[in-house]
Amino acid sequence: MAKKEEKKDILENPEVLQDTLMGAENWVEKNPKTIIGIAGVLLLIVGGYFGFNYYKQSQNAEAQKQMYQAIYYFEADSLSLALNGDGNNLGFIDIIEEFGVSDAANLANYYAGVCFLKQSKFDAAILYLSDFSSNDLLVQARAYSLIGDANMELAKYDEAATYYNKAANYKPNKYFSPSYLMKAALAYEKLNDNERAKEAYQKIIDEYFDSSEYQNARKLKARLESNS
């Protein structure tokens, strides 16, 4: 109650308000270094924010130019050139190292991961694909699925299933989620975990009955049930 009265006095009594302002002015006069320090920190924060954004945008523009030839090699299935460059043009790995803060370098992680997967270098594929991130409906889920594929090749079936489920549950949709669930079920079968395999098949049956995987999921679930 006392605080409310004090606040009321400050707002309604000009003399009290003047005394309060005079006190603040005196504090400012006695502490100029503190004021300058606070202002300097604020300027650094604001300047750093805008400076970093400008730097990131310029890095991204240059990285996109540099990545054009690497993508051309990737589409031509010249994977070594796509990864390492040709002496005149940068490869995906160079782009990642030189333009690390850019969106283009982030995308280069995806391309590099796919290249290594095609070369059967599965640990490297996992490393680069794990460094990729996107809000895109298709590409992020695809990256999770590819990490699952690499783990399957390494016989790490539990990790494979984890990533297949991440792919299936990333912005779920009837076009891609069922195929990722089918892969998860296969990984569980490799683990001899038929219960979780059946759960994956059942999820397709219950939630994606209009997908092309529906009938196959029913058959595979029935097979597991008949063998149990």
Number of helical elements: 12
Work out the helicity level: over 70%
The percent range for strand residues is: under 5%
Q: Please count the beta strands (DSSP E, at least 2 residues each).
A: 0
**Overall morphology:** extended
Structural write-up:
This protein is mainly α. The protein folds into two domains: 13-133, no CATH class; 134-228, Serine Threonine Protein Phosphatase 5, Tetratricopeptide repeat. Helix content is 79%, strand content 0%. It is built from twelve helices and no strands.
Give the SSE map.
Blueprint: H1 2-12, H2 14-30, H3 32-75, H4 79-84, H5 92-98, H6 103-118, H7 122-130, H8 139-153, H9 157-169, H10 177-190, H11 194-207, H12 214-227
Concise synopsis of the structure shown:
With 228 residues, the chain is an all-alpha fold. It has helices at 2-12, 14-30, 32-75, 79-84, 92-98, 103-118, 122-130, 139-153, 157-169, 177-190, 194-207, 214-227.
Distinctive features:
single chain, 228 residues, mainly alpha, Serine Threonine Protein Phosphatase 5, Tetratricopeptide repeat, 2 domains, extended
